[in-house]
Amino acid sequence: MPSTLNESTDPYCLRPGEATDLLHGHQWRRFVALGDSVVEGMCEPTPGYPDVQWVDRVAAELTAVRPELAYRNLGRRGLRAHQVRATQLAPALAFVPDLALVVCGGNDAFHPAYDAEAVDAELTAMITALREVGADVITVGMFDVSHSPAVPEHLRPGLGERMRRLSAHTADLAERLDTIHVHLTDHPLTADPTLYSTDGRHGSARSDAIATAQTLRTLSRRLPHPGDHEVGGARSGPEPR
């Protein structure tokens, strides 16, 4: 990464005023996030990028448009998918969200014995329960951390295969369960070493900035925009959620 690159010049980050335009008119009032360390936030500093983790940044931009937004982050590092459901789903439902983010399975996929179907079942249970209380649900296919320079070379092929399997399975669930799906796994920078922390398991402040941009752009596609118009008594363009 060139030394002069920072968030304001990074072509993959938000432009000034873009977040406000993307989220204009959003109606979400209660945002909850469930997951592991990716959700809790392990933002390793990167010069030129704020040390604010991804989900907190998304919440801040939602709040900038709707100041009364209530936000709760339940994410905790080290949890596998079944532990996220066991410890976080009940408090998330009690929060009565209208927007929820669910990200887990990465800790499962770090192990060679990763059981994709078991993780699918946990994600399905959480997504279904959240949608049943009226929440829109965000799911994510994360950056492929096997590209981190801190991952030993001999471990990269197996880890990469499992991370991509997790991403593909999550995308299939998103299609079936109608979630708002943010796909980062095939991002043009997924193999860029500047996106990863020195522990070989998490992201940098740059990756959090890029993930924020992708998340807001994906959320925006679920919102009505000024260019939408009524045709024969029905709205054309994106349907409001």
What's the gist of this structure?
It contains eight helices and seven strands. The chain is α/β, with parallel strands linked by helices and 241 residues long.
DSSP helical segment count: 8
Order of helices and strands: HEHHEHEHHEHEHEE
- List the uncertain runs: 229-241
Shape: globular
**Strand composition percent:** 5-15%
Give the overall pLDDT as a whole number. Answer: 91
Radius of gyration: 18 Å
Q: Can you list the strand order of the major beta sheet? A: 2-1-3-4-5
Helix % is 25-40%
What is the number of E strands? Answer: 7
**Backbone structural class:** alpha/beta
Features:
13% strand, two-stranded antiparallel ribbon, alpha/beta, 5-stranded parallel sheet, 39% helix, 241 residues
Describe the protein's topology:
Elements (H helix, E strand, L loop, with lengths): L17 H6 L6 E6 L1 H4 L13 H12 L4 E4 L7 H14 L4 E5 L2 H4 L6 H17 L3 E6 L14 H22 L2 E4 L21 H16 L8 E3 L2 E3 L5
Parallel strand pairs: 1-2, 1-3, 3-4, 4-5
Antiparallel strand pairs: 6-7
Helix pairs in contact: 3-8, 4-6, 6-7
Characterise this structure.
- There is one protein chain.
- The chain has 241 residues and is an alpha/beta fold.
- 39% of the residues lie in helices and 13% in strands.
- It is built from eight helices and seven strands, in the order H-E-H-H-E-H-E-H-H-E-H-E-H-E-E.
- It has helices spanning 18-23, 37-40, 54-65, 81-94, 106-109, 116-132, 156-177, 205-220, and strands spanning 30-35, 70-73, 99-103, 136-141, 180-183, 229-231, 234-236.
- Strands 2-1-3-4-5 form a five-stranded parallel sheet, sandwiched between helices.
- A hairpin with a 2-residue loop joins strand 6 (229-231) and strand 7.
- Helix 3 (54-65) crosses helix 8 (205-220), helix 4 (81-94) runs parallel beside helix 6 (116-132) and helix 6 (116-132) packs parallel to helix 7.
